[in-house]
Design a protein that fits this description.
With 480 residues, the chain is an alpha+beta fold. Among the domains are: 235-323, no CATH class; 361-459 and 467-478, Immunoglobulin-like, CATH 2.60.40. Helices cover 44% and strands 19% of the residues. Strands 8, 9, 10, 12 and 14 form a five-stranded antiparallel sheet that branches. It has a four-stranded antiparallel sheet with strand order 13-11-15-16, with no helix packed on it. It is elongated. It starts with 30 loop residues before the first helix and ends with a strand. 23% of the residues are buried.
């Protein structure tokens, strides 16, 4: 009897990370490249300039963690306003979902910080080391004085940009003018020093060294974008029906006779791609939608006197069925787009309404645990409380504290009869004593009794701010 053959021991090794060869992206110009650089300028002027913009005698946008105040132009927020940050995150998420469902990875291709700083760093690289072929030749050659100078100047500029970016980032949490003065006296605090270096070297490493590795392996968006794509999502696609079969030919060649499509197989679409993919292989998760391949392909089509759009923004359904622009627009309002839009409008509306109706001050009350209830002069019953008054405006405000729900009760604020002033964007704790006369205490009876503090903002003669009252619930204890 024949013995059974041993089972195959062949093993397959699956690598979750592949160390690719270095990508030497070719410089490209065109309509989409112009838009990309417009977004680079806009985002960087906004990021670097906003930190220096003065507003009401302070920085326009400042997240001052030391005093727990967050200033956004005229808006002053406290840690208790964390709900607004939650709303902003929800809005950002659904805006990303909506734009992705409609037009693919527009964020990645034009406004993502990784794309923006990679574009800046690549521009520096082209100016210091030359175009694509010169960079390849320089890297392949031996180390010379010229190579050392070119490489050294490139990395020096990269480091300067990275550190200035880190400095600006920290300047949104520590007043940037104070930070600038500290830079000349070498008096940076440990917190400022760490985050300036951390953010600076992160920018240098991500945009200078890792580049496409961040998009392909580190960014989660590349992995879950497929859940938001469908056949009507606008993507960058290659028109295979028009381009195939591809091949080289003379400019005057008869395509019908040569049995060739419009693609001349020049490979420029691959050379300009920052992630090194071949768009002719179809939709790939590595594609960030930067449209560099569209610009370079349109240039080739112009030289060959073929129609533009061999590589273009289109949908999978549009490429398959040859749909026109009007037909593509008709398919934009599909269920997922309507759901994302509805949620986005609702959350934005709720955020705007909440900010518009937001009280210009806040009140928190807690009982004085050292003395819950006591008998004072003339037989009055007194309870002690600690009240936190938070002025959310940048003007001094005066408040009057009263008591509702306890007839005959009076509120005594540290010796004053109910009035207290809080400075601009300041928080003040005050001791409040609530006293009830003997007759009222007897009618209430022993135990806990609910009442409310009323805090009225007094009108300011120097502004148009009207009076406003907030109510905060508490309890009054009558001892047995």
């Amino acid at each position: 009897m024949r013995a059974p053959e041993p089972a195959s021991t062949t093993e397959a090794v699956v690598h979750f990370y592949k160390s690719d060869t270095r990508i030497y992206a070719r410089a490209v110009s065109g309509w989409f490249a112009g838009w990309r650089w417009s977004l680079v300028w806009f985002t960087q002027i906004l990021f670097y300039g906003l930190a220096w913009l003065p507003w009401n005698g302070r920085q326009a946008v400042l997240f001052d963690l030391g005093v727990r105040r967050f200033y956004i132009f005229d808006l002053v927020l406290y840690p208790q306003d964390f709900i607004y940050l939650t709303a902003l995150l929800i809005i950002s998420a659904f805006a990303l979902f909506l734009f992705t469902a409609v037009a693919g990875r527009l964020w990645c291709g034009y406004a993502c910080p990784q794309t923006v700083y990679t574009e800046i760093f690549m521009w520096v690289e082209q100016r210091t080391e030359g175009d694509r072929m010169r960079r390849m030749k320089l890297d392949a050659g031996p180390w010379t004085l010229e190579k050392l100078l070119r490489k050294g100047s490139k990395h020096a500029i990269w480091l300067a940009i990275g550190l200035w970016t880190g400095f600006t980032f920290v300047g949104y949490f520590t007043p940037i003018r104070e930070l600038w003065a500290s830079a000349f006296t070498a008096s940076f605090g440990p917190w400022e020093s760490f985050w300036t270096l951390f953010y600076g070297f992160a920018t240098y490493g991500n945009a200078g060294w890792m580049r496409e590795q961040v998009c392909k392996y580190m960014c989660p968006y590349a992995r879950f974008q497929g859940a938001m794509f469908d056949k009507d999502t606008l993507i960058i696609g290659y028109d295979a029906k028009r381009g195939e079969p591809r091949g080289t030919r003379a400019r005057s060649a008869d395509l019908a006779e040569a049995k060739l499509g419009h693609c001349i197989d020049c490979g420029l679409c691959v050379q300009v791609c920052p992630t090194g993919i071949d768009i002719r292989k179809g939709l790939q998760y590595e594609c960030i939608g930067c449209a560099a391949c569209i610009d370079v392909c349109n240039g080739v089509m112009d030289k060959m006197k073929y129609p533009r759009g061999l590589v273009r923004y289109d949908t999978e359904r549009g490429l398959e069925q040859g749909l026109g622009a009007a037909q593509l627009l008709q398919r934009v309002l599909r269920p997922r787009v309507l759901v994302y839009t509805a949620v986005l409008v609702l959350v934005c509306g709720a955020l705007v309404a909440s900010l518009a109706l937001r009280a210009p001050f806040r009140v928190d009350v807690e009982r004085d645990r050292g003395s819950l209830a006591r008998l004072v002069e003339d037989g009055w019953i007194e309870n002690g409380y600690r009240m936190q008054l938070m002025n959310a405006t940048e003007r001094p405000q005066s408040y009057r504290v009263g008591v509702a729900g306890l007839p005959g009760a009076v509120a005594d604020l540290s010796g004053s009869r109910g009035d207290v002033t809080v400075g601009p964007a300041q928080t003040r704790w005050v001791a409040v004593a609530v006293r009830v006369p003997p007759a009222q205490a007897a009618s209430l009876g022993a135990g806990s009794h609910a009442f409310s503090f009323t805090v009225e903002r007094l009108p300011d003669a120097s502004s148009d701010q009207a009076a406003r009252t907030l109510s905060e619930k508490s309890t009054f204890l009558v001892p047995r």
